[in-house]
Amino acid sequence: MTHTHSASPLKISMLTAVAMLAFAANSLLCRMALIETDLQPASFTVIRLCSGAAMLLLLCSLRAKPVITGGSWRGAAALFLYAAGFSFAYTGMNTGTGALLLFGSVQLTMLSYSYYQQERFNRWQLAGFGLAVAGLVLLLLPSAASPALIPAILMIMAGMAWAAYTLLGKGTNAPLIMTTGNFWRSLPMLILLVWWLPGENWQHLDPTGVVYAIASGALASGAGYAVWYAVLPFLAASVAATIQLSVPVLAMLMGWLFLAESITGQMALAGAATLGGIALVIRYR
Fold first, then answer.
1. I want to staple 55 with a disulfide (CB 3.0 to 4.6 A). Which of 1, 46, 135, 218 is the partner?
2. Per the confidence metrics, is the pTM higher than 0.85?
3. Where located (predicted)?
4. Is residue 257 part of a domain?
């Protein structure tokens, strides 16, 4: 996919929508693999990262840039921690709750880092930050739909790892090459998960679960990131950040549509507070 300054607004809008749907689909595919098939979270992570690495290498080679020298070991470690935490967390929560927890912790970690780096917030931004934190706390309060504690902690840690991954890659002029390198560097770390699994799990992998994991790695992650990086130069930073607020909402709707997961009043209120708070910070940046 080439960057041309003649790209039409319609094309940019459509590609942006595809990228957001892909990011939300990661949550849905993981949840479907874990509840509809016998695939384990460790197996899902291994297949997802391997298929993502293969797809990214293919995309780079199509652009005559078949390199896996980009990225860094720190970036790969952050990617691995995100992917593993994400998969294990989804054993204990529904699609929308997971996406909201993940996304909320990513954004709040990055905003906290900005604040730590001497970027001072005005009163509207502080109010927004507080509202977003309150939304996540509300999401975690005991109820029929609230996630179990350990999975919730794992998802928050996955979000913090993704925030670190994003910050490590900030300012790169070759995001696709950097991502490809990070995916390939993360593969040796998968030995930890292979060791984690009992041997028989690998001999009886659920074929449907494997398809979901490959779709998550190759399409929702690999191709999804490539599309997003292609449209990113055409979007203002605040617009790009605001558009991503749609991902947890899309994930909630996908969970409701494909897995008949209920969207409770508590989830809706927590989502509105978290995403509204983050939008407020971005708006007054």
1. 218
2. yes
3. Membrane
4. yes
For the chain, how many structural domains are there in total? 1
Q: Is the dihedral of CA 105, 265, 152, 84 positive or negative?
A: negative
- Residue range 84-102, pLDDT digits in tens: 999 999 999 999 999 999 9
Separation between Cα atoms, residue 91 and residue 89, nearest integer Å: 5
Q: Does residue 74 carry a pLDDT above 60?
A: yes
1 lies in some domain? no
C-alpha 125/C-alpha 111 separation (Å) is: 10
Q: How many CA atoms lie within 13 A of 283 on its CB side?
A: 14
Residue 113 lies in a domain: yes
Q: Between vectors from CA 185 to CA 183 and to CA 190, what angle results, nearest 5°?
A: 85
Map residue 54 onto helix, strand or coil: helix
Whether residue 16 lies inside any domain: the answer is yes
Of 254, 242, 257, 180, whose CA–CA distance to 21 is shortest? 254
Give the domain range for residue 212. Answer: 9-283
